[in-house]
Amino acid sequence: MKIIRWNLILIVLGMFGMSCSQDNQESPIIVNLKPVDIQLEASSGDLLFITVEARTNQGSEILLNIESLDDQYGILSLLDTSFSFRSINFRYAYRVPDYEDSTEVTMIFSLANDVNDQIQVAKKILVNKGSKFIEETTGHNMFSTLSDKPNGFSLAELSTGYTTDSATFEADIYDGSVVEDDGDTLSRVWMSQSDIGFVQFNGFDFASATASSISSAYKNGLSVSKAIEIKDNDIYIVGRGSTALAAIQVITVVDQSGVNNDKYTFSVKSIQTN
To answer: Could you tell me the domains of the chain?
Structure first.
């Protein structure tokens, strides 16, 4: 089906339900979208139902094309179909893709009949409205458990501490060095006192990480109870249960003679909720 794309001004007019011709006569095609709200709110993964009610006063067929437009994916074709009726009541199910926070999506509904009358209406969807944001911290130093320096890290506090201070500090991540196994060598193992899972994902785009991309990487990765063979530039997505909490990029691993200066230096992008 060929639908001539109207310019943005006409799309905006369509959003406000202007389906009358310039001489105030009834348009050959009448369209209503339900819900009637001009803008809807949703979260990634939600299933939205939008009903298209339309009738044509001319011809015997209605053609329907649905597209989405946003800054993340550009223009996506969602549906292209036709109905051998002069009126339709069509319920469209839209699964909201994995979007960054506060993404605005425009859904464009283009309709035509078989005598080339055309109309477009649009509906806006605000996805992940202010629900989550990223807090980035850098330069964290977590030392060997065999040293006398902080050997654990708290994701909640975004700070280091000692695993021995169990009354005041819970180590979401800590160094797994034990003298029997490692001697004066850094273990390069991370473990958790709070059931944190680790997903190694060295191809993850840490620089551009969002709450959505961190959650998606964690959901699609293999979570393990400890990270092993940690080295410079490794990236780990961490979470608890099915919930992603943060992305961690290892800047450098220092393993010197002795244990007191052995450490991991890393940056964290943690998911915060309003």
So the answer is: 8-127 (2.60.40.3880), 132-273 (no CATH)
